Amino acid sequence: MPVNKNALLRYSIIDRLVRNKYKPYPTMEEIIEACLEQHSVTSSETIQKDMNHMRRPRPIGYNAPIYFDRKFQGYAYSEPEFSISSLALSSEEVGAIRETLDLVKMISGTSMSEKFNSAMEKVLSITFEDFPEGEKKQAILQTMQPPKARGFEYFELFYSACREKIPVSFVHYSYKKRKFNSIIIHPFLIKEFENKWYIVGYSEKHASIRIFGMDRVYAPILLDKPFIKVANKKTDDYFHTMYGVFPIPKAKKQKIKIRVSSLATNYFQAYPIHESQKIIKFPDGFSNITFQVVPTIELVRLFLSHGKQVQVIEPEWLIDFSTKLF
Amino acid sequence: MTTENKSLLFEIPKLEGSRSNPRLLRVIVTSTFTRIDFGYTTPWYYESGGWIKIAAKTHLVVSGNEKKFLLKDTEGIPIAPKKMNFESTEDWQFFSLFFEPIPLIDCELSIIEKENPTEKDFNYYSIQLLLSEGLTILG
Question: What is the rounded distance in angstroms from the CA atom of residue A79 to the CA atom of residue A82?
């Protein structure tokens, strides 16, 4: 029979108190008080039962060597390093999990984040303290949370397809061409860029790696057919060599040089946009910035968003391209 | 898995001599329904993109079979007399029609909205479904 969440919480409290080297030998009253602080209603009988359960062998109990020390009038483990949690997370590690949880909640609304929440709830309940169930707390971490985009409901399906290596059939609508197409993709990556989600994989129709905005995807269906695996190096290189997601057709990785005002230089210095970024600063504060990347639509848009503060100087064709895009 | 309980997906290439809008994209044949996926883009010649609807009597006809496989449900398109109005000549709509299950055999499939169709009716003829080209759906 599964142990209920309140019992798990009490076990973790008992374990934490008994292992506390700064305040060893907790008394029954102290244990009850700690449980009450964590909103777990309890009594000495319940705690005794909990301790008996903890003493039972695994997997039913925890094999906990808990005993009452008559000399110190409190409870302790006969093996000082014992913990009911084989994970034995430190408070810093628990803190790191909580921060991660906050980040995962940014992808809220998917059952995946619910599953992750539930899994972490179990981990935290046997390691440290109560999990803040439904508690309204002040957010201390905030990222952009735009309203849910169309197609995001397929996130979990594509995530599973990437993980389990399952080809997917879907219908794609091209905004630019105003055209529907039936696509079969062998997906390997879900990519987020500027709050937009993309699915990346080998497209049978295009016989190459392609990227599709999830907002333009309709009715994905998992297929039972052999998965076409793209070499790891290719998949790793795909995005490392670019800023953004949509490469300019036929453009290869190359050196791109921009002339940047002193004002805009500050931003490029503070927020480098690519690992290849190199800044050569001049006495007047202006700079030349170079990148070794596959040019993308997003890169050109970024340059254009700075207006006169940023000018493309190399290569020649990109100057023309930027003018046309503007 | 036997053919009887297998679900197959057929990608439909652009049909010669058939209407291209709505574009017929996929046919999915299962033991409980036949689903047909379409993509529609609003044309320039209708004010604000016009509207779409599907006749309740729309059905499928399979070569070598006299039975009419009736429309059971839709997604993304209303059944007449209801209709869906577009807002512009740049709109689009993905929709699916669900019919009674057709036999899972090599066949030619026709979608009939009206026996004597006008330009506004969605009739598609002789869509070739070959089992060897069907893709097995997982699950």
Answer: 6
